[in-house]
Amino acid sequence: MVTSLPTTTQPDDPALAVQPSLLADGPALHAVDFVVVDLETTGGAATGDRITEIGAVRVRGGEVLGELGTLVNPGRAIPPTITVLTGITDAMVVAAPSEEEVVPTFLEFARDAVLVAHNARFDVGFLRAACDRLGIEWPRPLVVDTLALARRVVTRDEAPNHKLGSLARLFHAAVAPDHRALTDARATVDVLHGLLARLAPLGVTHLDDLVTAADPVPEAVRRKATLADGLPQLPGVYQFLDASDRILYVGTATNLRTRVRSYFTAAEKRRRITEMVRIAARVHPIPVPTPLEASVRELRLIAQHSPPYNRRSRSPGAEPWIRLTDEAFPRASIVRTPPASGPVLGPFRSRGLATAALEALTGAFGLRSCTERLPLSPRPGHGACALRELGRCGAPCVGDVDRSGYLPAVEAFTRFAAGDAREYLAHAAARLDRLVAQERFEEAAVERDRCQALLRGAARAQHLRALRCAELLAARPRDDARSTTGRGGGSARTGGRVWEVVCIRHGRLAGTAVAASTAAVLETAEALRLTAEDVPEATTLAGAAWAEETELLWGWLDRPGVRLLAVEGAALALPRHGAAWALADLQRHLGLTHPRVLVEAEDPEQVAGRSDPEPTDPRHETGENGETDEAGEAEDERDGREAGAA
């Protein structure tokens, strides 16, 4: 059954041994083991038909390492049309081994290799179906489809179609396909080598290049993949720059090289980003010790440079706040600059959210909503607005309420801003219950959105206050076990537990580091404290950092496993009945009591990160039948499979 076994011997000539490049993106293609496979079957349905013959050739660097070829007893009669096509008869397979014997042998033959086939979804689909029947877990190897590759680099001027026979003639294969598995596999080997020779000038020289080579990516974009050469496989920030070194786009990644390479594959589907890639001349990486520092640096760089292809966080300092005006009858007002002291909410992510929050608190606390500045005593002849007639304003403008009568509304707002949201929560829940009881669901949804906008803005202000301590040192175990270069060029490897150590000063990230083990955490923290950025004390509530940076820091501190190592200055604490508590309680109330008043699972304004999300990079064949390429034209299917075998 096995013509020859794969060999792992090295070349006798030491001069032929090539050390891989430090910058290689996966193994070089000449060092990759490929197993080229071809099947003959009783029909075209992977689940209903069976394998009648399997042929496979294992190659590396152009050298054949081993071959496997055998007939397979399908356990059923072979249709006459298949016999005419392949020449395989029932008599030929009677004494052949069954798929229970052949499939495990093939999987062992193909272990740790990249599978190659022409119209791979057909062959891989049958192999996966056989594994399912036998109770064998499919090993999910990388799959390369020579049909898909041919569609990318072989034009109709060169070959009438992309059938295996046509490609074998084009690339002068040593054997001609004859609808027998091993012969067709040998021909596919020559086709593979011919395709790889054409792809090399396009930058397809490593395995990572090959698995995306068949993607529908414009050639001008694919050629830019060299911009990722030399990027480190570390967390950090990357900048796309044009020929004049203007920053076009800033993003963050846990693995710089992998993330940047994804921009040159079919995984990147955003039109404006594809336009940016065409303009880009180089990529500047900024490696950092931790993903948290990468996210913060990304935020700061976007705010500093306003790259044209970044959409989020280009003006974090322009976010609106809500404060009380300084007058006899204060009102809530939206402002751009927060006061140094006094009750304040925000900053809000947009003017629209600030307006919604303003409407919520005005109705809840009884603050006036008119913008006119009112004196202590009403002006003679001054008339009231329509809100007085609707009962939605105490009308201090005409003397219906004096300063002492208006003061409770101001005090209620002050208590809420200081961190006691119980009064507001009771009011909001009662109003929502009343609207739902009256089946006014649209109004209830509007009120819900206003409540959430107000509570989120209040929560951001409380986070800012809590993080204004002079210095905070904290550590958290890493989520992964990857080695990461630490400060000073050292390597933090998993000789135990790897920890991220963070230094925060006056609400601003001053530095991060990685401790190689639990025993090294305190030493690493002390070194970080001595070398971290010196941050002056903030003079406004906004603090020494943007509110988005504060949220990133809170997100990190709020995750399981965080240990506080040292806190200098104000205590790190949130109000017990603050806005964050009230928001969670309100959402529970809405979700359990009023299912028709939908609670947003995630406010789009709250999505973390400034750059766009990383697209999925499909590295393995997917789909029920192991597809690696979309269905092509009928003439591109395998030679003869139109008759029913494919």
Q: What integer value in Å does the Rg equal?
A: 33 Å
Largest sheet: 5 strands, mixed
As residue ranges, the low-confidence spans are: 5-24, 481-495, 599-610, 612-646
From the helix content, strand content and strand pairing, which structural class follows?
Answer: alpha+beta
Indicate the percent of residues in helices: 25-40%
Secondary structure: number of strands: 17
Gross morphology: elongated
Strand order of the largest sheet: 3-2-1-4-5
Oligomer: single chain
Count of helix runs: 20
Beta-strand percent range: 5-15%
Calculate the mean pLDDT score and round it.
82
Q: How would you describe the overall organization of this protein?
A:
The radius of gyration is 33 Å and the shape is elongated. The protein has helices at residues 80-86, 90-93, 99-109, 120-134, 146-153, 164-170, 181-199, 207-210, 219-222, 256-261, 271-279, 291-305, 351-365, 386-389, 403-418, 422-437, 441-466, 521-531, 547-557, 579-593, and strands at residues 34-41, 51-60, 63-71, 114-117, 143-145, 236-241, 247-253, 282-287, 321-324, 332-335, 344-345, 471-477, 484-485, 491-492, 499-505, 508-515, 563-568. By secondary structure, it is of the alpha+beta class. A hairpin with a 2-residue loop joins strand 2 and strand 3 (63-71). The two termini are 25 Å apart. It has 20 helices and 17 strands. Helix content is 35%, strand content 15%. Residues 5-24, 481-495, 599-610 and 612-646 have low confidence and may be disordered. The strands form 5 sheets. Strands 3-2-1-4-5 form a 5-stranded mixed β-sheet. Strands 16-15-12-17 form a 4-stranded antiparallel β-sheet, with helices on both faces.
